[in-house]
Here is the input.
Amino acid sequence: MAAAAIRSGDVVAFPTETVYGLGADALNPDAVAKIFKAKGRPQNNPLIIHIHDVSEMEKYAYPTELAYKLAEAFWPGPFTMILPKKECIPNAVSAGLDTVAIRLPSDPVARKLIKLSGTAIAAPSANISGSPSPTRAGHVLHDYQGTDKIAGIIDGGPCEFGVESTVLSLTENPPMLLRPGSITPEEIMRYIPDLTLSEAVKNKLPDGAKAESPGMLHRHYAPIAETEGVKGSSVRAAVYINENIINSGKKCGVMCFDGEEKLYLSSAIVMSYGKESVPEDRAAKMFDVLRQLDLLGLEKIFVRIEDDGGVGLAVFNRLLRACEFNITDADPMPAVFGVTGLSGAGKTTLCDILEERGYDHIDTDSISRYTLDMGKDELVSRFGNEILACDGSIDRKILASKAFASPEGTADLNKITHKYIMKEVVRRLSENRVDNKISLVDGAALIEAEAHKLCDVLITVAAGYDTRLERIISRDRLSVEQAEKRLAAQRPYALILKETDFVFENETADGYGKELDRLSEFLAKYIK
Ligand code: TXA
Ligand code: MG
Here is the structure.
């Protein structure tokens, strides 16, 4: 039925091993025009024709000996060659060029459809122009549902490779890679050692520039949400992204590498798209995950990107365009150190020493004092008017007695106050990022507020129970009973240790210098 539709000049969506295509009879200009109309594709962007057998190549183009050699090596498969075209190829397909792009797909459904249609099938990726390519029938349905733009969709399940074919021009001398794909430059160079890479593969061409492949000029693969690509190590990238999520106040999503999920704030929508070390994995999932995130109505999507070789080049090339070349490298940014510890462990002393090294000391305990009134309305609506003093400001003592009376009250108080504390912390962090200054975020409740996710490393100052008890008794002039009560109310130490990168043992004054040396050595690798 689908083949009959193609023969009668209709447009059909069908699976290939790369992405779903929107096919029509390549020799029928009216049918081809329907593809452009359905996709909203710019007229100057030519189409690839799909054949079912190598012998068909010479019907539509003038293949060279090299073309046959490459066909033998890479066909059927995710590989497209640009060759001088024959007369029979209408201008509608070639967009007025004297060349044509040809591909012999490996997907059995695609090949059967082409064969039964008795013609070559011109097919771009089946997405609406500019949006992420479809790698599942459901993606195509999403783009065309409720329209009469296409006659039907053949559902062949998820595509094997997930990224469009490699496009190689044999009409350039030496041959030029126009679009990277699952057949890698390294593989092609076995046949073409002097292969060149089109400038457009990794770079944004200036306005008005002529691209060897017109498709590389257009805004492409992009979600509706504003999208930013972030390069760099896992933790550094997450620190930068988390800071921006809070700072922007926007509803954000993150498309990260497998295993990075836990580095992100719980307020963000986080989806992984594959292992950083396996680009084939990322290629197969990137469009699906981009589409899933975009369905959530996010205002901004951060995408983890890696500029690597092999199939990674294809992923990088698509994501550069999905982000409209808005790429940030998080690695060179100044470090953020977090310091925490239980009462009496000696956090403040250590922070004072580190502050003298020129780090900006962001003390969340003092921030919590001056940001308390920012949450006044929310606090009053949760805990009542009684928390207000005569002058209308919040009475901290009354608030504390009401909030700490129950675990729910404590949780609600934290939820409200942490929001304003974090806003102030990230304001300082982004200032320091611009000024290239190292930040030192200090607080007893860093983990509860998720502030440790804004830090490259978390340092925990530690001392035994008896030592801490003694210290707070003499420091805060408490009775033994009061001090014991204070320490009993502390968060579980195991929870802190789980997130800690460096434990600073502060048991005795004698050992302090040695610990400081050990810490300096540890921090050195984060100081650029
Ligand atoms: O994997 C694929 O190639 C998929 C499936 C459906 O086969 N098709 C696909 O088509 O990705 P499309 O139209 O989305 O991308 C074709 C690319 C565009 O960048 C276009 O500019 C380029 O190939 N192209 C087509 N004909 C060309 C020509 N004669 N000269 C230079 N570039 C050409
Ligand atoms: Mg496309």
